[in-house]
Amino acid sequence: MLSVSEALDRAQMLCDAATKAGADAADALYYCNAATGVSMRLGQLEDVERSEGQDISLRVFVGRRSASVSTADMDAGELAKLVERCVAMAREAPEDPYAGLAPEELLYKGPVPDLDLDDGSEADPQALRAAALAVEEAARAVAGVTNSEGGTASHSRTRFALATSHGFAGGYGSSGHSLSASVIAGEGAAMQRDYGWHSAHHLSDLESAAEIGARAGTRAVARLNPGKAPVGKVPVVLDPRVGGSILGHLLGAMAGPAVARGTSFLLGKEDRALFDSGIVVRDEPHRPRGLRSRAFDGEGLPTGARDIVADGRITGWLLDTASARQLGLAPTGHASRGGGAAGVTASNLHLAPGALSPEALIADIGEGVYVTELIGQGVNAVTGDYSRGASGFAIRDGAIAGPIAEFTIAGNLIDMFAALVPASDLVFRHATNVPTLRIDGMTVASS
């Protein structure tokens, strides 16, 4: 694994070589990840994995023609061949009027701030084994748990570096720690499975094995002997661990490439109040130790905190350079890169909490469903039609009742946004965080 400074030197060398070979502009991106994971099952060592991969991607522009190539070979001679091949490919590519690097005057300038993404740790297989064993034992200790799919602990290190031919160079490193358990409750055809997990950049921020394991076991046991869900148009309440998917659908519809292609269900609704006026969705790329924190985006543009929904309205599209040019707008610092063309992504995202506790939020529901798991991908990005398999718990007379399974929840995302009410229980644990969410008027049907 190269250091950040070594990776930047390598990326800058590729950009310089590309312009010398006839490219009008170029950028190069280096990414490396090294990971170690240990899995324990039923108290015995199940698996030990160690992986390390690196990749450097070069994108060149000849006029409005572009091409991208990537390699894991860092040999200087091989990289020189990579440059020649990429420039030759670009000369033969079709013209794209929107192709090109981000505007030079908008590039991030100055030193990259320390967002505290790296705790300096190295993988310790013995410590990982102990953690994996501890989290599984905590889950298996819950009364009613009968089997285990295992406990897993992992450690990773990542390096990212981006250089462009028009003056940007930036990179950063991060560490990662994760811990999970998956267990089974019950016997035979009545068995139910559930899990618990957490991840963080710093080991000191990781939840304890006891907490994660107990959550996995308790959830599995709570799902035993599920009944049938109430059917018809009833209130649907989403547990925070699944509610974040609603923001994922919102982001997909706000992404510049989808808008430019005309494949977003939000087209024509930019100025409409989509949510209740009190709803706020905030993107915070500079949060210290945030799982998706970054000072600059995948094209070298500065990132910044932004309410992507304020007063119930979206505040504009999320744009990379190409989609911004196509729409006649300015890029917003949301480009992502994995080699090749840029995409669009947000960073640390959360939906602001409401005033009511989860208990108060459901207190007036005579009959409804509380969803803890969503299944399938039944969402139409063009129309906003939504239909997902689900499991969870019935809500009866204002309280969570017994488990239910094998039902679907359906609606349209525009209607769901309008009906969405958040509880007060927001906790920052993941890259996307939401409180408990209530959505009235969805259709619930038995599978």
UniProtKB/TrEMBL annotation:
GO function terms (MF aspect): metallopeptidase activity; succinate-CoA ligase (ADP-forming) activity
Keywords from the UniProt entry: Ligase
Enzyme class per UniProt: ligase
Chain ranges of the Metalloprotease TldD/E N-terminal domain: 36-90
Location of the Metalloprotease TldD/E central domain: 121-224
Domain Metalloprotease TldD/E C-terminal: from-to ranges: 232-445
InterPro entries: Metalloprtase-TldD/E_C, Metalloprtase-TldD/E_cen_dom, Metalloprtase-TldD/E_N, PmbA, TldD/PmbA_N, TldD/PmbA_sf
One term under GO cellular component: cytosol
Gene3D superfamilies in alphabetical order: PmbA/TldD superfamily
EC identifiers of the protein: 6.2.1.5
One GO-annotated biological process of the protein: proteolysis
Similarity section: Belongs to the peptidase U62 family.
Name of the protein in its database record: Modulator protein
Source species of the chain: Sphingopyxis granuli
Lineage of producing organism: Bacteria, Pseudomonadati, Pseudomonadota, Alphaproteobacteria, Sphingomonadales
Name of the coding gene: pmbA
